[in-house]
Specification:
Elements (H helix, E strand, L loop, with lengths): L13 H26 L7 H24 L3 H12 L18 H21 L1 H13 L6 H21 L5 H25 L18 H29 L7 H15 L5 H20 L7 H25 L7 H26 L5 H17 L4 H27 L1 E7 L2 E8 L8 E6 L2 E7 L17 H7 L7 E5 L15 E6 L2 H9 L3 H4 L3 E6 L2 H7 L5 E6 L14 H10 E10 L8 H10 L3 E7 L10 E7 L16 E2 L24
Parallel strand pairs: 5-6, 5-8, 6-7, 8-9
Antiparallel strand pairs: 1-2, 2-3, 3-4, 9-11, 10-11, 10-12
């Protein structure tokens, strides 16, 4: 460019760059939980939806960094920003809902790409792009602290969503507010480029332009991959093995982002964080070797999240110490993003295909320990020996943990929806020995192995349970029952000749286990029907089923997915119930108090309700359970005495500060125990 005929304008102020980088990162992590709120109900509401979404976010981040690495003119970026404005607001179209039965991961990736793909890539590339622009225009050194600023914006966006956004705004209002903020962001970035539309050159010569040595490039890729893999694997482990609470991923993800801030903010010190990282790996490995340490769920969750932070600081700190000359700045960030994306792919796609057991956390710990040894291998012996010892201890715990899962299991299967395990549960009474189906620490059903007792309902369905009382009060004659959530098929034990029991189940592996290992379905004299796919989507497509009883016993981890407890869902349930029919909801949860939510729905729909709590009873193989029974018939719960209803009515259980949930609004934070 001939600057004599087109003189360069003054360099835009650095605060403008800082503001654009911070706001872009803030929006980047606000859109993640927001878009997840829209698509979670479409795919069952399980943790797998978040894992697949996070994999998309990491891949899109990589795309943004690649875009920043290859871009050499300002005009294309301004044009793409303008095009992205026509794709607002960021609300997924209903036509992308799955029909049921298809592989969920490709569908999730497609929905995200169509809805927020371009905006996300442009936001993701903001920090490396503007750093490269500053470097090229100013001719100065790269401002690596802007990467720390970017992660600070990401952290603020992540933490403010559940505290300041979700409790007060519905999904659509959130989407419009985010879209307005995106307009402001686009204006900031456009003002930078339009103020100085010249072509820039971030090049160098001689040593500065030399290609980075391969070992350094390998660290740029492998260390972030290890940290990312540990993040996803630990989140999965916490949600399945320690505390299956919704949105539990916020704690480790926040500390993961904080590790970037510490490292790229220049606060990393190897002498401090190397031993802390080794202690963190050993502490997390102890949870594998001695699961009883996770009894204090709060301490275990904090401990694992802190471990992710310390290992993340070490990994990212070693990357920062090997940062290149600013000439290679965009390549450097591209490798870091590629590593993060690789970690996500390994956990979300590779692990379910390669590992029959849920050993991602054990593998992640081992790989991080191997990385630690590799990075310290050329150091003095007094640093190598502790690193090797740490690796040996972690590897031993990982092998023992995964080996125990395989040896003690009758069946092990896993897919997008999680890892399922069938085990034999020995008891003092041989007649009460049972097969148990578990997902993490949550028992999803069991069946007694004794041939005489195997048709007897157990656990949450056993004698004296709320659902047993509900079935006992159904009208005589042939009955139709719908059951959301198959489990082991225990509900089929209540079926009689002439009855129709229709099960809705989203996980094909659950169907396979219920029909092959457990025998409730094939033993039942009732006609059994199984509908594969999300229950709400299936019920929306079906004509009214005229159920005498509709049972909701579907769990994602420890709680019912939120989209099954909304006004829209209740309207759907009532459409499929006979006028005198009964709705039974299994609301047992260690994480959430769900009774007030159901109470609010009962109040708004003028339903008569009863809460039935039952405790453990090993003599009939019963587990503690809370069932809520609802009916439009005000006389449905008048029966009392032997075999009659007993429990607490809905009105005393309602809370004025807990409104009924809708598809647009739900707030779990007020309900957490």
């Amino acid at each position: 460019m001939d600057n004599s005929r087109n003189p360069a304008r003054a360099l835009p102020p650095s605060w403008l760059f800082s503001a654009a980088i911070f706001l872009g990162a803030f929006l980047l992590f606000q859109i993640q939980p927001l878009i997840a709120r829209f698509i979670l109900p479409w795919f069952g509401g399980g943790a797998g939806v978040w894992s697949a979404s996070l994999m998309f976010f990491q891949a899109a981040l990589l795309g943004g960094y690649f875009y920043a690495h290859r871009l050499r003119r300002s005009e294309p970026h301004v044009i793409l920003l303008a095009v992205s404005l026509f794709l607002l607001p960021v609300i997924p179209a209903a036509r992308w809902k799955p029909a049921g039965g298809e592989e969920p991961i490709p569908r999730i990736l497609l929905v995200l790409a169509v809805t927020i793909g371009l905006q996300y890539v442009l936001l993701a590339g903001t920090s490396p792009l503007l750093q490269a622009v500053w470097r090229g225009w100013s001719g100065g050194e790269g401002r690596y602290h802007w990467y720390a600023l970017s992660n600070a914006g990401s952290l603020l966006g992540l933490l403010t969503y559940p505290v300041l956004v979700e409790p007060y705004l519905g999904r659509r209002a959130q989407a419009w507010l985010w879209s307005i903020a995106y307009l402001v962001y686009a204006g900031l970035v456009a003002s930078i480029f339009l103020t100085r539309p010249d072509r820039w050159d971030a090049g160098g010569s001689g040593k500065e332009a030399a290609r980075e040595p391969t070992p350094r490039l390998a660290v740029w890729l492998v260390a972030p991959a290890a940290a990312s893999l540990l993040l996803l694997a630990s989140t999965e482990h916490i949600s399945e093995e320690i505390i299956p609470a919704p949105l539990i991923w916020i704690a480790p993800l926040s500390l993961y982002l904080l590790s970037f801030i510490v490292s790229f903010g220049g606060w990393y010190r190897r002498w401090l964080f190397l031993p802390l990282a080794m202690l963190a790996l050993l502490g997390m490995a102890a949870l594998l070797e001695w699961p009883s340490l996770a009894f204090d769920t709060k301490a275990a969750t904090i401990g694992v999240s802190l471990g992710v932070f310390l290992v993340g600081v070490y990994c990212h700190g070693e990357v920062f110490l090997r940062r290149p000359h600013p000439h290679h700045l965009t390549r450097f960030y591209l490798c870091v993003a590629a590593g993060g994306s690789l970690g996500g792919i390994l956990v979300t796609i590779a692990a379910p295909l390669l590992l029959p057991v849920a050993g991602d956390f054990a593998v992640g710990l081992t790989l991080c320990a191997i990385l630690l040894v590799a990075l310290e291998f050329r150091r003095p012996w007094w640093r190598v020996i502790p690193a090797v010892s740490c690796l040996a201890a972690v590897a031993y715990a990982a092998v023992m943990y995964t080996g125990a899962l395989a040896v003690d299991s009758v069946a092990l299967v896993r897919n997008f929806y999680g890892a399922l395990r069938v085990t034999e549960e020995p008891t003092a009474n041989p007649k009460l020995q049972a097969l148990v189906l578990t997902h993490g620490i949550i028992e999803h059903g069991s069946q007694l192995m004794d041939p005489i007792l195997r048709r007897q309902p157990t656990m949450y369905y056993a004698v004296g349970s709320g659902i047993q009382l509900a079935v006992a009060h159904l009208p005589p004659g042939p009955r139709r029952a719908g059951v959301i959530g198959l489990g082991t098929g225990t509900m089929a034990a209540f079926g009689r000749a002439g009855d129709v029991f229709r099960f809705y189940e989203i996980d094909p592996q659950v169907v396979r286990l219920a029909t092959s290992i457990f025998s409730y379905l094939r033993d039942s004299p009732a006609r059994i029907e199984v509908v594969l796919g999300d229950a709400r989507l299936a019920l929306e497509r079906e004509q009214p089923q005229h159920y005498d009883l509709l049972v909701l016993d579907a769990f994602s981890g420890d709680v019912i997915p939120a989209h099954l407890l909304t006004r829209e869902a209740m309207t759907l349930y009532l459409r499929h119930l006979n006028p005198g029919g009964m709705l039974a909801l299994h609301t047992s949860s260690k994480a959430l108090r769900l009774v007030p939510v159901v109470g609010a729905l009962a109040r708004d729909f003028h339903l008569t309700g009863l809460v039935i709590d039952t405790g453990d009873d090993p003599t009939v193989y019963r587990r503690r359970a809370t069932w809520i029974l609802l009916s439009r018939d005000s006389s449905a719960f008048l029966a009392s005495g032997p075999g009659g209803f007993s429990g607490k009515g809905i009105p005393p259980w309602t809370r004025p500060d807990i409104p009924a949930w809708t598809d647009d609004y739900s707030n779990i934070w007020r309900l957490m125990r």
